[in-house]
Amino acid sequence: MGYREDARKIKALADENRLAIMMSLQQKEKCACYLLEELNISQSTLSHHMKLLCDSGLVDYRKEGKWMHYSLSKEGAIAFRDMIDGYIRTDK
Amino acid sequence: MGYREDARKIKALADENRLAIMMSLQQKEKCACYLLEELNISQSTLSHHMKLLCDSGLVDYRKEGKWMHYSLSKEGAIAFRDMIDGYIRTDK
DNA sequence: TCCATACATTTACAAATATCGATATGTATG
DNA sequence: CATACATATCGATATTTGTAAATGTATGGA
């Protein structure tokens, strides 16, 4: 069996900046320009991180005119939690 | 606030081979030589991965003579799960 | 239509990580 | 003590990842 896909999803969370983004999104949905002000990174770097988070399913996006609104995905969180539990549970 | 430490722990799980190791350890405690037979990697590479997993707290080790026995850490799993939940929960 | 804004993509490079062979360390055994 | 074995560490290299400048694309307003 291959664990590549799960590893890819876990990697989406395995970065300082992306953890900061996740924490920021817990408050509410936010647009990219707002996140850009909070984090000390360039616009292209933020865009890169958001792509990884969205691809992992942990973050949802909604385009509104020029703005991209990002929010935590409830379903993504549940799927992620279940996936993690499959690896770390100690009782069979 | 710094997310470096959490990112480091999540990275410990963010690798194909280490996920395979975690799954293997779910069955029972295993020694390095046994894991080496299951995985298609060199001895030095396995040692490297085990160090990362042990450092993250997810895996416990027990030295018995020449052998190193590895097992999943119950406490490590709980701490890890709680840490992850802090980032992905969608209800405040 | 022209321009500014918001964001994505491309490109290039630096930093981090995975890998393995070689070597070192520690341990049992004859 | 010499040897075999199990594992860790070191050194070198290849791959992956993070970063930002430059560029591209879509949107909305003047």
Summarize this entry quickly.
Two copies of one chain form a homodimer. The first copy, chain A, is of the alpha+beta class and 92 residues long.
Strand line-up in the sheet with most strands of chain A? 1-3-2
Gross morphology of chain A is elongated
Query: Total helix count of chain A?
Result: 5
User: How many independent structural domains of chain A?
Assistant: 1
Helical content band of chain A = 55-70%
Radius of gyration of chain A: 14 Å
- Name the CATH superfamily classification of chain A: Winged helix-like DNA-binding domain superfamily/Winged helix DNA-binding domain
Average pLDDT of chain A, rounded to a whole number, is 95
The protein's oligomeric status is: homodimer
Largest interface comes to: A-B, 31 and 31 residues
Strand content of chain A: 15-25%
Helix-strand string of chain A: HHEHHEEH
**Number of DSSP strand runs of chain A:** 3
Low-confidence stretches of chain A: none
Task: Briefly note the CATH topology name of chain A.
Answer: Arc Repressor Mutant, subunit A
